[in-house]
Amino acid sequence: MASPRKICVVTGSRAEYGLLRWVMEGIRTDPDLSLQVIATGSHLAPAFGSTYREIEGDGFRIDRSVEILPDADTAAGVVAAMGRGLAGFAQALEDLGPDLVVVLGDRYEIMAAAQAAMVMRIPLAHLCGGDETPGTYDNVIRHCITKMAALHFVTHREAMDRVIQMGEARDRVFCFGATCVDSLLRLDLMSRGELEADLGIALGREAFVITFHPLTLRPEGQESHLRALFAALDRLRSEGDRVLVFTGSNADNGGGRFNTLIGEFAASRADCHRFASLGHRRYLSLVRCAAAVIGNSSSGIYEAPYLGVPTVDIGERQRGRMAPASVVRCEPTEAAIHEAILRALALPRGGVPMIYGDGGASERIVAKIKELAGQPELCIKHFTTLSTAPCAGPGPIEIGS
User: Fold this and answer.
1) Is this structure's pTM higher than 0.85?
2) Directed axis angle between helix 75-96 and helix 108-119, to 10°?
């Protein structure tokens, strides 16, 4: 009897783990597959909530940890961290000897893991390629990982077209929808009362969930954008019994400064709270109870609409992503943000057509990995021109194709 295929999942942040959670579970419970887990990035840092404990709390064993967080909150610090991470991933992959590596998204930690896998001739499966997020180097990293990956699991038709446009073979690109929907369907979310008791805060008449990250390719004016958000939120607070809940900015250059400013803002207001990390279940439970999600996190595009909660998406960080009609986009100025929040609050709850599928993406991804992992020459890639492998063309692509 053949040994189970070893599938190594790399996870570096709280948000991306939430999207990988049920893919990991599917791999773990399949008798023909053997799950390996590498934790890296902000998972390992107390300043970001030591979220590796959530992975372990869900019953997963972390096989290797790779330290990669920057020593300095600068671009040069991130570059140095990527170098350390590359060496760390090389050692971890050599020790584990996986048949396939699974990564998601666009962060510099994941870039280092993908580079190591490529040079070590380990096939790479990439989730959420083909998205477009201008203003951040994540956008460039995402496309670079696409070119290193052997298998592509995208969330929607436009992403599929972009990946094929980059020369990837049509039979290696699979549009299965967003894995976040699986979490929303499977997780036992907390009630408002349970959440308030667990967090130790009252959510008031209306609560707002706020996450704001730096634009890494546009460092100029970043603090002014954050301060414009603060000013708009102060106007909002003055208009009624409203509570603000911030989650921490991520581990990009500039993220440390953002977290300092957010901490100062929250500390000066009794109805404002900041958490380095809420964990996946608490975060989604909070979003479900919220009046709106505000900021520039992808969770406002992916998860919030499925929970029937409107989103105010500020600036250009997420502007290239397809968004349901419950997402109100605005410029990063006080007046524009305040107006967008009021518009979002006037939207009806629910009833918005969803564009990222209706669940089951994780199972389909695991099934395809099981089918293709171990195939000879999976690492061998050829650039496929559009003349021989055109994009899908007019008409819808069904989720699952």
Assistant:
1) yes
2) 40
Report which residue type is found at 113. Answer: A
| Structure token pair of residue 37 | 């887990």
Nearest-angstrom CA–CA distance, 188 and 119:
41
Q: Give 92's Cβ-side CA count (13 Å radius).
A: 26
To the nearest 10 degrees (0 to 180), the angle between helices 108-119 and 137-148 is 20
pLDDT digits (tens, 9 = 90+) for 173-223: 999 999 999 999 999 999 999 999 999 999 988 999 999 998 877 766 588
Residues with Cβ within 8 Å of 11's Cβ and at least 6 positions away in sequence, in order, are 17, 20, 37, 38, 39, 40, 41, 43, 55, 104
The residues with which 245 forms a beta bridge, in sequence order, are 209, 273
CA separation (Å) from 347 to 303, 351, 379?
17, 10, 47
Domains of the chain: 5-178+358-372 (3.40.50.2000), 190-346 (3.40.50.2000)
Identity of the residue numbered 243: V
pLDDT 10s digits, 61-102: 999 999 998 888 788 989 999 999 999 999 999 999 999 999
Q: At residue 358, what are phi and psi to the nearest 5 degrees? A: -125, 25
Sheet holding 33-40, edge to edge: 64-66, 33-40, 5-11, 100-104, 124-127, 151-154, 173-175
3-state secondary structure the chain: CCCCEEEEEEECCHHHHHHHHHHHHHHHHCCCEEEEEEEEHHHHCHHHCCCHHHHHHCCCCCCEEECCCCCCCCHHHHHHHHHHHHHHHHHHHHHHCCCEEEEECCCHHHHHHHHHHHHCCCCEEEECCCCCCCCCHHHHHHHHHHHHCCEEEECCHHHHHHHHHCCCCHHHEEECCCCHHHHHHHCCCCCHHHHHHHHCCCCECEEEEEECCCCCCCCCCHHHHHHHHHHHHHHHHCCCCEEEEEECCCCCCCHHHHHHHHHHHHHCCCCEEEECCCCHHHHHHHHHHCCEEEECCHHHCCHHHHCCCCEEEECCCCCCCCCCCCEEEECCCHHHHHHHHHHHHHCCCCCCCCCCCCCCHHHHHHHHHHHHCCCCCCCCCCCCCCCCCCCCCCCCCCCCC
Residues 155-174, mean pLDDT to the nearest whole number: 96
Tell me the two tokens of residue 155. Answer: 């969330």
